[in-house]
């Protein structure tokens, strides 16, 4: 057995590993400590805000900083929105100095450790699987809401008791005061609301939380924010109704003070988004949810007009970071991307190979958003990447299961192209596919390389990200790169045997010859709706291949993505933020202050305009330079060396059967049965898996690992969407005490 045998993980072998210098490690720790200090101070300010002591400190701070050109707006923006922007800047520096560090050997410990981000605390509740870190965050918001309500109720009652009011007047005053306080609480929640949905956010990259997992935080915060804002509006409505001037108040639009009508419009837009985002509505009509959610523009702009500039600045930091991400996504998605090749597999699955520049990096568990303009100009669909970044510098692959109208039309278009290429119809116009791609997104670090033992459980098309994982590991083993996994178990359940050609998209032997000497790999396949193998496999496993885009264009995916080059994305964020400060200062110095502009809603509109202008002007300048740099780098690269050739794709070959013949020692196929996890997965891991599956929480767990610690081993169970299948398995095979 060679030096990289299964007895010793590659990461622990004598192969050279890039070590982090003491200076770089020290700088990273200093940045982390500084970011934590700023974050804790920011949270402390938010918790002190409802108290009289906090209000006193805030008044002293505003008085001390009243000499700045932006006045109270600048003061509040600095202390309430500034921290998240400063943390974003420090995250950029941390990502830059971290570079492409390899994983280093972990210190062995007799006692199993606990990682807050992955250790499950709640596994059987309405929130799905909640890790320890997520539970701490939830607890923090719950404590804040309870604390703020207690403080505000106490203050309101004390103030009312000191006024000479009738019982009715006291009730009305209490409702209005509590309505205002609930609105301020909603603003603080809104400061966090947009951070999780900034797909390429440096904050998400720094804490290594992918966008698809962070979306659940946006959902939780959205519910809390809308509850607070709805109660805010209801208390005012009840108070005005008790006064008898409800309609007059709802339609009022004051210049000095809060403008009510924009707030009503903003709240109505928020309610529409909230109702259509509820699970029953979203599952019934996803497009209704998606298009209604574009009302976030009305929601945010209406809020700015409602409260004015200085109150809106309390939540502007998170909104500004989201605007930066949205503009960059818009720039990236405008480019059309070459489709190098397309395969239509017999199981109704399509494989697309997309062109990309060599300097666009991604991990094996990344995903992209795909638009085909011939099918729809509005629809963007997310797909997991099925290829490893080590498969080739200039392409990536995705597998698409035909499950709906859009995917059916895509497969039909590929078949039409295949027929048009036949010599019998040379005069017909050749169909084409025009693709646009956004991404890739995913984990900042390839976390599947952090564990010696991997259990990959998939159903149907859910195998695609695991093909990328397996390819990545095999490439690393073959090339001698750091790679910790040495025992891999893939459990794959399919309905029918015509889905087996999905394995043909990867040739294990060509990636890593004699890999079975270096890796313990076992693939267990379960065909659940067939009792015996098909008799005529040759007819079943034929693959239709169509080349739909010429190679000569060289039009790859754009590198204009927040998860791309850390230096350029950092310059984009920093320049846009500095541009916003400059534009806001110019606005106050040369317009608002000289002309004594005091209209609240107008100043809120100008504040929002400065945010947008800074992103488009200053950020757009960096994006333009970034694009020119991309073109210059791409011109130096030789596309023909590493790019996938169309001729490399096998035509009409029984590739699934070939895969089975070449790898019978590692592959087992069972017909008419389902996997018995009792013999595969240790009990503690089954416990976590069972509770997750019973509640059907795989939407929350998309490409997310559940780490279960037991005995002397740590396993990474990575799951994809196969709710119904695994739910049935749990019900039939597991007896959980």
From TrEMBL:
Lineage: Eukaryota, Viridiplantae, Streptophyta, Embryophyta, Tracheophyta
Record's keyword terms, sorted: FAD, Flavoprotein, Heme, Ion transport, Iron, Membrane, Metal-binding, NAD, Oxidoreductase, Transmembrane, Transmembrane helix, Transport
GO CC annotations, alphabetized: plasma membrane
InterPro entries associated with the record: Cyt_b245_heavy_chain, FAD-bd_8, FAD-bd_FR_type, Fe3_Rdtase_TM_dom, Fe_red_NAD-bd_6, FNR_nucleotide-bd, RBOH/FRE, Riboflavin_synthase-like_b-brl
Pfam families linked: FAD_binding_8, Ferric_reduct, NAD_binding_6
Enzyme class: oxidoreductase
Keyword rRNA-binding assigned: no
Recorded family membership: Belongs to the ferric reductase (FRE) family.
Transmembrane segments: 29-49, 70-97, 127-153, 174-197, 217-241, 253-275, 295-324, 454-474, 567-592, 604-629
FAD-binding FR-type domain: residues covered: 332-447
Cofactor names: FAD
Location(s), subcellular: Membrane
PANTHER family associated with the record: FERRIC REDUCTION OXIDASE 6-RELATED, NADPH OXIDASE
GO molecular function annotation: ferric-chelate reductase (NADH) activity; metal ion binding
Mode of membrane association: Multi-pass membrane protein
SUPFAM superfamilies assigned: Ferredoxin reductase-like, C-terminal NADP-linked domain, Riboflavin synthase domain-like
GO BP, sorted A to Z: monoatomic ion transport
EC number of the protein: 1.16.1.7
Catalytic activity: 2 a Fe(II)-siderophore + NAD(+) + H(+) = 2 a Fe(III)-siderophore + NADH
Protein name in UniProt: ferric-chelate reductase (NADH)
